[in-house]
């Protein structure tokens, strides 16, 4: 947050007075992705919470079974089509596009959490 | 079902097609999207039970047909799956 405030302070003044709001916003976002583990990078607890809540809200999943260690097929009885749906729901939750090759590997909450936590664009 | 096995190349192609349909559905209105998702999901699940997993020729045919339907769905003119040749989706 301190970083963002500092950036904002710099950008606002006469540097680029003609910037429209949307341009400022995209500039901020690109700055943000450059700071690898800055203050406003998603912290791990938040990633875990949001991944678990996406998985729990999946209709075929018993929410009481969902933990960070849970395996989609072995523990939750999901098939490969379900897995595609869950990974796509995670894409939307974190505003990412996960390529097929990576998506095929994500078969547990743990892997999903690691992948998203290490993704620089996750938001 | 046994333990998790690595996916075969053909399974990956099927999953990739499924992903393609779900991505294409995102670009439609929320109502159409829900309808598309439920039809697509039902079709994939129906075939997953119906089709012998060793029937590679038939699965390849389904993959080709699916890709054609996906291309149609991706067009901004296609609002709903019902405007696709859905009758062809049913088995003869």
TrEMBL record, chain A:
A Gene Ontology molecular function term of the record: acyl carrier activity
Any single GO CC term annotated in Swiss-Prot or TrEMBL for this entry: mitochondrion
Similarity section: Belongs to the acyl carrier protein (ACP) family.
General function of this protein: Carrier of the growing fatty acid chain in fatty acid biosynthesis. May be involved in the synthesis of short and medium chain fatty acids. Accessory and non-catalytic subunit of the mitochondrial membrane respiratory chain NADH dehydrogenase (Complex I), which functions in the transfer of electrons from NADH to the respiratory chain.
Protein name as catalogued: Acyl carrier protein
Any Pfam family: PP-binding
Superkingdom field: Eukaryota
Subcellular location as annotated: Mitochondrion
Main location: mitochondrion
Keyword Protein biosynthesis among UniProt keywords: no
HAMAP family (alphabetical): Acyl_carrier
Pathway: Lipid metabolism; fatty acid biosynthesis
Automatic annotation (TrEMBL), chain B:
BP-aspect Gene Ontology terms: mitochondrial respiratory chain complex II assembly
Subcellular location field: Mitochondrion matrix
Keywords attached to this entry: Chaperone, Mitochondrion
Protein name (Swiss-Prot/TrEMBL): Complex 1 LYR protein domain
Annotated family: Belongs to the complex I LYR family. SDHAF1 subfamily.
Source organism of the structure: Dillenia turbinata
InterPro entries xref list: Complex1_LYR_dom, Complex1_LYR_SDHAF1_LYRM8
Keyword match Chaperone: yes
All residue ranges annotated as the Complex 1 LYR protein domain in the record: 12-72
Origin: domain of life: Eukaryota
A single cellular component GO annotation: mitochondrial matrix
Main localization, broad class: mitochondrion
CDD domains: Complex1_LYR_SDHAF1_LYRM8
Pfam annotation, one family: Complex1_LYR
